[in-house]
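Anyone up for a design puzzle?
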């Protein structure tokens, strides 16, 4: 529903420009009242999760990305430890984790224990390096398969603040080395792992992966930890590479910057002027990022 109350339908065939804009429209174009999804049959995913050293991950980035449907990893700052995750479709039958292993890994260790160590690290920052070192060495490998949603998602019950940037895929290794160098030169104590994931090009105008193979770098801190130096400093590193901020996470970018990293940014603004000239759907955030 548009700002004037008009109901419209858009798709690749019908009003394709509105379709490409609204799929990452940030609520600025109208109210989505119905969606028709293109679905695929349910499938089983095989997960292979294992620790790997920092240098090996960076050396094998291309191989790990090309050899798996989905590859991501987590690096524990102040250490050489990473946890890699590889997901691929398999015909089945599923071989899920036991109920106890799922509880131990995904609830007790990844949530209850992780919350406890972050509270300790927040209160005693000097302990963070030791805690991260123990966590990185304690990582265990596991392989299992299950229904896709049970493999691809995981419960996150520890409150945190997050900033995530999408950069050109070819810049990933260099960006990570610079991020690590910045952390090592600082006196920060970063208790949360840094998350890295990959995505192929997309075509919604304001998709973070619009028009290019993309790598995402996400940084986090415990909800009570000050992020005042950490987030802006890493943001400088990633914006120097043409990074695009995650629209729903913390960032400081405005329209002057964003129009330089989104080729269709001007087209989005022009379309918005046409269908919501009075800015019925504007708010403080959209005013900052769109400039009006």
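Challenge accepted. My sequence:
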């Amino acid at each position: 529903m548009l700002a004037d109350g008009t109901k419209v339908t858009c798709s690749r065939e019908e009003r394709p420009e509105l379709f490409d804009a609204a799929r990452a429209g940030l609520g600025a174009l109208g109210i989505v009242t119905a969606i028709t999804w293109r679905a695929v049959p349910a499938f089983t995913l095989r997960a292979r999760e294992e620790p790997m050293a920092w240098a090996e991950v960076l050396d094998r980035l291309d191989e790990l990305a090309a050899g798996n449907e989905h590859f991501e990893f987590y690096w524990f700052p102040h250490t050489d430890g990473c946890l890699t995750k590889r997901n691929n479709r398999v015909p089945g039958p599923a071989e899920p984790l036991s109920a106890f292993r799922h509880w131990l890994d995904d609830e007790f260790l990844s949530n209850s224990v992780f919350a406890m160590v972050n509270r300790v690290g927040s209160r005693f920052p000097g302990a963070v390096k030791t805690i991260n070192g123990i966590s990185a060495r304690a990582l265990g490998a596991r392989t299992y398969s299950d229904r896709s949603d049970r493999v691809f998602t995981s419960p996150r019950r520890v409150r945190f603040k997050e900033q995530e940037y999408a950069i050109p895929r070819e810049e990933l290794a260099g960006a990570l080395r610079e991020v690590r160098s910045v952390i090592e030169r600082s006196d920060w104590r970063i208790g949360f792992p840094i998350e890295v994931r990959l995505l192929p090009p997309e075509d919604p105008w304001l998709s973070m992966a619009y028009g290019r193979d993309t790598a995402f770098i996400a940084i986090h801190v415990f909800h009570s930890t000050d992020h005042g130096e950490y987030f802006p400093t890493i943001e400088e590193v990633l914006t120097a590479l043409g990074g695009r901020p995650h629209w729903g996470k913390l960032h400081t970018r405005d329209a002057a910057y964003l129009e330089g990293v989104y080729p269709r940014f001007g087209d989005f603004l022009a379309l918005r002027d046409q269908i919501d000239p009075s800015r019925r759907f504007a708010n403080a955030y959209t005013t900052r990022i769109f400039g009006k």
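A detail worth pointing out: Residues 99-123 form the longest helix (25 residues).
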